[in-house]
Structure formats: C-alpha cells, structure tokens
Amino acid sequence: MRKLLLFFTLSIFGLGCSQKVPQANKTGFSKEALAQKLEDEEGKTITIQQILDQHKGKVVVLDFWAGWCRDCLKALPKAKELEENNKNIDFVFLSLDRSKEGFEKSLERFEMKDKENYWFVSGWKNDFNNYVDLNWIPRYMVIDQKSAIAKYYAISPEDPEIQATIDKLLK
Q1: Of 37, 41, 146, 162, most Cβ neighbours within 10 A?
Q2: Mind spelling out the 3-state secondary structure of the chain?
C-alpha cells in the first residue's frame, strides 16, 4: 500500500513539474516582451530589445538557467560544449536566480563571469518569460541575425535542432 501511495504521489507531482511544449512556435517578440527589463552583473538595467540590438547581425543563443536548477547544472557542460563548437555566434545567459546575491554567487560558482549574463529582477513571471511560454529551465532559443526567433523551443543544449538551426542561419 505504501509503495502504491508513493507511486501516485510521485506521478501527480511529476505531472505538475515538467516542461510543457508550447502549442505554437513564435517567430518574433511582442512590444511588451522586448521592453522587459533585466540587470547585468553591475546592476545596470537593460531591456531585451537593447540586448538584441547589441547582437544585430549575429546569430544568438539565449540560455535560460539558474544556479539552483539541477537540470540546468546537469546541462551546463553540454551548453559550454555548444558554445565552444560555435565561436562565431553569441551566447546570452538569462538567469532566473531568485536574488541578486544568488545570481552573483551562481556566476562565480559555475565559472560564468566571462560570459554575457543578465538577471530577471522581476522574477520568473514577467512579460518576456510569459510571452515565450517559459515554464521550465533550462531552455534554449536561437535568434537569427535580424532578431527573429529561429528556434523557439529546446530544452537541452544537445537538441540537434539547435545546431541545425545555427548551421542553416550561417549558410
């Protein structure tokens, strides 16, 4: 009886805590999503639009992660490998750490300080994350040279569609 109860508890818990594939693949961003504010490592405010503008003309991989996220930490070596194998594109790391202190500690602890990092001060629920249907991390998106979404939904840096999308955009 105990095993059966444990099975049902884990099943119910598991259903509420897994990635749900978005119903539609978006190819662009809303005005509200682009206006979303983040902070860089120095505490300077920047919008998603400003981040994309800095990378105009380049292929960008957005990597949503947090230092408290076990799945993110398991994916980190493969994410670093993806970055190493694609030195000609830009990687932008968007942190969902719960506090500025947590963000700073995660960057230090996981050797991310030499990367382009931003933190969602507003937390998980905000105009950008709501627009991109962010319901779990890690999550990866590929943005093309014109700041359009080329690959909307990937949950692993090993997803072959990420590399295929990058390769296609660089042709």
Answers
A1: 162
A2: CHHHHHHHHHHHHHHHCCCCCCCCCCCCCCHHHHCCEEECCCCCEEEHHHHHHHCCCCCEEEEEECCCCHHHHHHHHHHHHHHHCCCCCEEEEEECCCCHHHHHHHHHHCCCCCCEEEECCCCCCCHHHHHCCCCCCCEEEEECCCCCEEEEEECCCCCHHHHHHHHHHCC
Reported as a single tens digit per residue, the pLDDT across 53-110 is 999 999 999 999 999 999 999 999 999 999 999 999 999 999 999 999 999 999 999 9
β-pairing, 60-65 vs 90-95, is parallel
**Residue type for 78, please?**
K
Give the C-alpha separation, 93 to 95, whole Å: 6
- Please state the pTM of the whole predicted model: 0.87
For residue 11, pLDDT beyond 70 = no
| Region 25-169: CATH code | 3.40.30.10
Buried b (16+ CB within 10 A) or exposed e, 81-105: ebbeebeebbbbbbbbbeeeebbbe
